[in-house]
Every structure is written in structure tokens, then in C-alpha cells.
């Protein structure tokens, strides 16, 4: 099993996400990351799907994706020059002034952005590649991560 990144352009219609994800679940593949959003054309959405799969079976899934009536284009970005990003929002325990100052220093040092300061928590935003996101999480764990939301990977092919 290997990690594959697919970029699927689909018509922006009700039920398309369910049909596409159903192709993967019917074959027992675990989608490790799924990000869907409107493109520059509001009638088209881009699905970025990261899946652990066997290469032979994945080829069958790609062919079946092409056959779905709402699918416009399927791109396999695996191993290609791409620009990839994820977004992280993480709420950290910051009930003491000394801890709060340390968390702010971590955010400043890593280039993360503080987006909310509460009475007992700080919420931090980070956008970047998977390694950058994981590194920030590891730096914040000792302070007590209360809650975390992480987008799936989004990716575009590079012009290189």
C-alpha cells in the first residue's frame, strides 16, 4: 500500500462527494485526507484526495472516477512537482501568564498566527506542508492541546 494524491475536478452539484468517496469505501480504501472546494469557476469543485491504496486497484478506481457523469478531470499528482498545503487551527491551554508567553513565543518563532486569545486558551493558525504542521503540533503538545481542526491536503501541479 502506498500514499497517492488525486486531484479530481467535478461538477459542483449535490451528491457528487458521496459518489466519489463511495468508490473508495466500496474497495476498502481509507481516505487519509479529503479537501473539497469551489474552483475559480463556481460550477466546478476540486477534490484533493489522499488515499492509501494498492497501485493496481487505484488504477481501476481512477478509471471508474472518469466514468462518473459529474467528473470532469482526474489527475494523479503522486510523485509529480506540486504545491501542497494544509491548514491547522489548534487551541492550547494557556491559563497561566508564563505559559501564555511561551506559547506566543512558539507561534512567533514558527511563523504561526495567533487568531484568538481567550481567558484560558490561545488559538493558533498554521498553514504549510505536512511537516510544518506536525512540527507545530509537537511543539504545542507539552502545553496541552485542548482542541484541533486540520484540513486535508490541498495540492496543485507545479509549472516547473
Describe the structure.
This protein has helices at about 15-25, 55-65, 95-110, 130-140; strands spanning about 1-10, 30-40, 45-55, 70-75, 80-95, 115, 120-130, 145-150, 155. The protein is an alpha+beta fold and about 160 residues long. It folds into two domains: about 1-80, 2-Layer Sandwich (Alpha-Beta Plaits); about 85-155, Alpha-Beta Plaits (2-Layer Sandwich). Strands 5, 6, 7, 8 and 9 form a five-stranded antiparallel beta sheet that branches. It has a four-stranded antiparallel beta sheet with strand order 2-3-1-4, with helices on one face. A hairpin with a 3-residue loop joins strand 6 (about 115) and strand 7.
Would you kindly provide a brief summary of this structure?
The chain has 160 residues and is α+β, with helices and mostly antiparallel strands. 31% of the residues lie in helices and 44% in strands.
Order of helices and strands: EHEEHEEHEEHEE
What is the tally of beta strands? 9
The rough form would be described as elongated
Strand content: 35-45%
Write down the overall mean pLDDT. Answer: 92
**CATH fold name of the largest domain, please?**
Alpha-Beta Plaits
Put simply, the count of helices is: 4
Distance between the termini: 28 Å
CATH class of the largest domain: Alpha Beta
Report the major sheet.
Answer: 5 strands, antiparallel
Rg, please?
A: 19 Å
Question: Which structural class do the helices and strands define?
Answer: alpha+beta
Amino acid at each position: 500500500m502506498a500514499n497517492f494524491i488525486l486531484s479530481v475536478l467535478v461538477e459542483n452539484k449535490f451528491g457528487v462527494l458521496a459518489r466519489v468517496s463511495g468508490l473508495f469505501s466500496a474497495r476498502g480504501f481509507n481516505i487519509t485526507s479529503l479537501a473539497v472546494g469551489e474552483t475559480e469557476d463556481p460550477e466546478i469543485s476540486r477534490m484533493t484526495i489522499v488515499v492509501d491504496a494498492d497501485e493496481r486497484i487505484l488504477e481501476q478506481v481512477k478509471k471508474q472516477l472518469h466514468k462518473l457523469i459529474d467528473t470532469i478531470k482526474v489527475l494523479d499528482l503522486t510523485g509529480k512537482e506540486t504545491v501542497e498545503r494544509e491548514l491547522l487551527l489548534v487551541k492550547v491551554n494557556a491559563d497561566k501568564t508564563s505559559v501564555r508567553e511561551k506559547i506566543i513565543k512558539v507561534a512567533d518563532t514558527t511563523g504561526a498566527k495567533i487568531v484568538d486569545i481567550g481567558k484560558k486558551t490561545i488559538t493558533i493558525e498554521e498553514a504549510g506542508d505536512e511537516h510544518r504542521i506536525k512540527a507545530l503540533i509537537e511543539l504545542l503538545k507539552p502545553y496541552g492541546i485542548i482542541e484541533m481542526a486540520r484540513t486535508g491536503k490541498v495540492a496543485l501541479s507545479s509549472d516547473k
